[in-house]
Design a protein that fits this description.
There is one protein chain. By secondary structure, this protein is mainly α. The protein has two domains: 35-128, Orthogonal Bundle (Rna Polymerase Sigma Factor, Chain: A); 131-218, Arc Repressor Mutant, subunit A, CATH 1.10.10.10. The chain has helices at residues 37-45, 51-71, 74-91, 101-123, 147-161, 166-177, 182-189, 193-217. 25% of the residues are buried.
């Protein structure tokens, strides 16, 4: 029958599940989202007075470690790092997102250190570059438990690193000292990964010869 007096005026009830659906996973209202590096840099460019400081604080330990390894003493490392921060602050609007922000920052720090080292070379004529402490395990076949011998080894490595050219030295600092993957070191230096591998290989071979000579002389 159609339209009879007994026809229902609303659809019949649909069977409902007996169990309630799980609650939605919501972030706590009192925990704001943490901005990414790219968002902080964009906020700085847009005029946020605190964004750049927050960004630098996020990466300052590794940036400082790289500067200190390259410059060897805290005073020169601090000067180079300030040069880098100022350059990054002023050039932030030129960041195009072709690399990670952290890689971009590290590249600026490395370049600032190299600029200062070259300036020192010009000022000191043919004096050797400042040396770097190193922890390149491949160069030491035996373990040295004695603290005095450990320090002597570090001094030998530092003196040997000082005799490498800039390219080999920076590659070893990033890969062997600071532990960056070759691909990330390549991005920081703006060169192919194969170039970093080649510089590291040549630098390690040169260091091995220099260390062998120092031990024989000793």
């Amino acid at each position: 029958m159609r339209g009879g007096a007994g026809a229902p005026t609303s659809p019949p009830d649909v069977a409902r599940p007996t169990a309630a659906p799980p609650p939605l996973a919501l972030a706590p209202a009192n925990e704001p989202a943490v901005p990414s590096d790219a968002e902080l840099l964009a906020a700085h460019v847009a005029g946020d007075p605190n964004a750049f400081t927050t960004l630098v604080h996020r990466h300052q330990h590794r940036l400082w470690a790289v500067a200190l390894r390259m410059m060897r003493n805290p005073h020169d490392a601090a000067d180079a790092l300030q040069d880098a921060y100022l350059a990054a602050f002023r050039r932030a609007d030129g960041f195009r997102g072709e690399a990670q922000v952290s890689t971009w920052l590290h590249r600026i720090v490395v370049n600032a250190c190299l600029d200062r080292l070259r300036k020192q070379q010009r000022q000191q004529a043919e004096q050797p570059l400042p040396a770097d402490p190193d922890r390149t395990a491949e160069l030491v076949a035996e373990s040295v438990p004695d603290p005095v011998e450990q320090q002597e080894l570090r001094d030998d490595l530092a003196a040997a690193l000082a005799r490498l050219n800039d390219d080999q030295r920076v590659a070893l600092v990033l890969v062997d000292v600071e532990g960056y993957p070759v691909e990330e070191a390549a991005a920081i230096l703006g060169v192919p990964a194969g170039t970093v591998k080649s510089r590291c290989a040549r630098g390690r071979a040169r260091l091995a010869l220099l260390l062998r000579g120092r031990r024989e002389d000793g």
